[in-house]
Amino acid sequence: LTADKLLDQLRGTKFFSKIDLRGGYHQIRVAIEDCHKTAFRTRYSNYEYLVIPFGFTDAPSTFQMTVNEIFRELLDKCVIIYLDGILIYSRSREQHLQDLDAVFMLLHNNRLITKGSRCDFLKRELEFLGYIVSTEGVKIDPKKIKTIQEWKPPSNIKELDHDCFWWEEKQQAAFDQLKITLTSPPFLRIADRDCPYEVITDASDIAIGAVLLQDFGEGLQPVAYESRKLQSAEKNYTVHDKEMLTIVHAFKTWRCYLTGADVIVRTDHKSLQYLRAQPNLNPRHIRWLDFLESNFHYTIIYKRGANNIADALTRPTADTTMARLDV
Fold first, then answer.
1. What is the DSSP secondary-structure string of 96-109?
2. Do residues 308 and 202 lie in contact, with contact meaning Cβ atoms separated by under 8 Å?
C-alpha cells in the first residue's frame, strides 16, 4: 500500500476511525489436524500451538488473507486493512456511523477482539501505518522527522570540536536549511511497501539512533529518522548491548513498516552479524532476540563506522554540565 494509493482511496473523505485487533495472529485458530506441525519441545514437556504464533514464515500472509476475507464486502469501499490495523473512512458522519456498524457486526460475527486503548473513532485526523490521514489528504507523520527538526547546533567547546568548524550566523542559516532539506520531499520519501527496507543504526554513550531507508530506483533515500537518549540503566550497558538495543528500538518504532518485509540492518558493531549463533545469551539478549525472531525477517550486515549516517542522530547534544561556548 503506497501513499499514492492511500491518497486515491481517501480523496474526499471527512471522517476516520482506526481499530486495532488485540493479539493479532493469536485470534486465528490453527486447524486441529495441523497443530502437530507446530510442535516444539522444552525440558518440561512437548507443546503444540492452537493459534497462529508470531514468527512463522507464513503467519503475516495467512493473517492478512483471513482478515481480508472477513471484510471482503467492505474492502476499498470504506475499509483499509493492514495486518491487525483497520482504517474506516467515510464522506459524512452519518455514513461513517453506518460503516462502523457494519465493521462491528463483522467483528462480532467472527469473534474478533479489539484493543480499546489503540482504537480511535470519528476523527478528522489520525495516524495510520506511519502516515497522518486527514480531510486534507495524506502526509508524513511528524514523529518520523522530529529527531532532525529538534537537532540542536553545537553549544559548547566539545560539540564545536566534533563538528570541526566555526559557528556563526552563516553556519546557523546553513544548518537550519539542512534540517529543512532532510525533512522535506523529495529528499524524505513516503514508504512504499513494494520496495526493500534498510535500517542503519548507531549508538553512543548517551543516545541511540537509526535511519529507515528504501531504494526507489535512484539509490537509498530516507523514509524516517529516530533517536532517543539512553536511560540511566541503559548507559551502563556494554557497547554490544547498546548497539543491539538500537536495533530492537528501531524495529519497535517502525513495526508497521517492517512486519512481513525483508529488512537489511547495517551496523558498525561487527559481532551483531553473528547474533543468532552467539552462545551463552543472557536473559536480556534472549528477550530481545525473541522479539526480533518472532516478528521480523531481517539480515544484519556489518558496515564500517566511517560514514554511518545514523551517527549524528546519537550525538545531538553533549554533556550539559560542560562550559558553554560563546560564539
1. HHHHHHHHHHHHHH
2. yes
All 3 cell numbers of residue 215?
Answer: 531504494
The answer to whether domain 3-140 has CATH 3.30.70.270 is: yes
In this structure, are residues 223 and 189 in contact, taking their beta carbons and an 8 Å threshold?
yes
Q: Beta-carbon neighbour count of residue 239 at 10 Å?
A: 12
Tens digit of pLDDT for each residue in 239-285? 999 999 999 999 999 988 898 889 999 998 888 988 888 888 899 99
What pLDDT score was predicted for residue 166?
66
Q: For residue 76, what are the contacts with CB-CB under 8 A and spacing of at least 6?
A: 9
Angle at which helix 283-295 crosses helix 239-253, to 10 degrees, equals 30
Query: Would you state the pLDDT for residue 300?
Result: 95
User: What pLDDT, on the 0 to 100 scale, is given for residue 88?
Assistant: 95
Cell numbers for 257: 513498516
Please tell us whether the domain made up of 148-314 is placed in CATH 3.30.420.10: yes
Those residues of the chain that have pLDDT short of 50 are: 186, 317-327
Distance CA 187, CA 172 (A): 21
Task: For the chain, give every domain's residue range.
Answer: 3-140, 148-314
Round to whole Å and give the CA distance between 183 and 175: 13
pTM of the entire predicted model: 0.62
d(CA 78, CA 16): 10
